[in-house]
Write a structure and sequence with these properties.
The chain has about 190 residues and is an alpha/beta fold. It has a single domain, classed as Dihydrofolate Reductase, subunit A, CATH 3.40.430. The protein is about 20% helix and about 30% strand. The protein contains four helices and twelve strands. Strands 7-6-5-8-1-9-12-11 form an eight-stranded mixed sheet, sandwiched between helices. The longest helix is centred in the first third of the chain and has 13 residues. About 40% of the residues are buried. This is Dihydrofolate reductase family protein. InterPro entries: DHFR-like_dom_sf, RibDG_C.
C-alpha cells in the first residue's frame, strides 16, 4: 500500500480557509511563477515549486475529502481535481441525487473505511488526505504517514484549521524537506510512530 499524506496550503497561523470557507490568498503561489504546473497552463509556479510539487502530484492515486469540501466544489463536476484518478468522500449521506455513477467518486461512511477504500484504489501510489476536519480525524486515527504543508505568508486570524479539531498531541519528525518557492514555503514531515 502507498503511504497516506495529509496535505494543503495553509496560512502561517494554521488555517486552510477563513470562516466563510474562502481560501483568500492561500493559492496565490500557484499563479506567481512562469512554469506551468498543470496541463492547461492555468497554474504557473516557480521552478523550485514545480520541482517539489509536480513529482508529488504525479504519485497521487486517490484523494480523501469530506462531504463539506465535496459540496463546496460541486463535486468538481464529476472530474477529480489535478487529474487524480479517484476521490473518496467521507460522508454519512449518499451521493447527490442525479450524480453520475460512473464518475470516479466513492462515498464512504467513516475515515477508517475511506482510507482503506482509497488505499485499495491507489495501490502503491499515494493516498492524499485533504487537511481540515477529515484530515485531523485521519491523523487522530493514526492513519497518516506524512504531513505536507505549503505555508503561505499570510495570517488569516481565524477560520478552518489545518488539523481540524484535533485535541491531542501528535509528534512529527524533523522536516524531511524545507523548500522556498515564490510566496510559499513547502514543508514535509513524517509522522512519528
Amino acid at each position: 500500500m502507498g503511504k497516506v499524506v495529509m496535505y494543503s496550503s495553509v496560512s502561517v497561523d494554521g488555517f486552510v480557509a477563513d470562516e466563510n470557507d474562502q481560501p483568500g490568498p492561500l493559492f496565490d503561489w500557484l499563479l506567481t511563477g512562469d512554469v506551468p504546473l498543470d496541463e492547461g497552463g492555468v497554474l504557473k509556479v516557480s521552478q523550485t515549486s514545480y520541482d517539489y510539487t509536480r513529482p508529488y502530484w504525479d504519485q497521487i492515486g486517490a484523494t480523501v475529502v469530506g462531504r463539506h469540501v465535496f459540496d463546496l466544489t460541486d463535486g468538481w463536476d464529476g472530474k477529480p481535481p489535478g487529474a487524480v484518478e479517484h476521490v473518496v468522500v467521507v460522508t454519512h449521506r449518499p451521493a447527490p441525487e442525479g450524480w453520475d455513477p460512473d464518475a470516479p467518486f466513492h462515498f464512504v461512511d467513516g475515515v477508517e473505511a475511506a482510507v482503506a477504500k482509497a488505499q485499495a484504489l491507489a495501490g502503491e501510489r499515494i493516498v492524499e488526505v485533504a487537511a481540515g476536519d477529515v484530515g485531523g480525524q485521519v491523523l487522530a486515527a493514526g492513519l497518516v504517514d506524512e504531513v505536507r504543508m505549503d505555508v503561505v505568508p499570510v495570517v488569516l486570524g481565524s477560520g478552518k484549521r489545518y488539523f481540524g479539531a484535533v485535541d491531542a498531541q501528535h509528534l512529527l519528525e524533523d522536516p524531511d524537506e524545507v523548500v522556498q518557492g515564490n510566496r510559499v514555503l513547502h514543508l514535509r514531515y513524517q509522522v512519528r510512530r
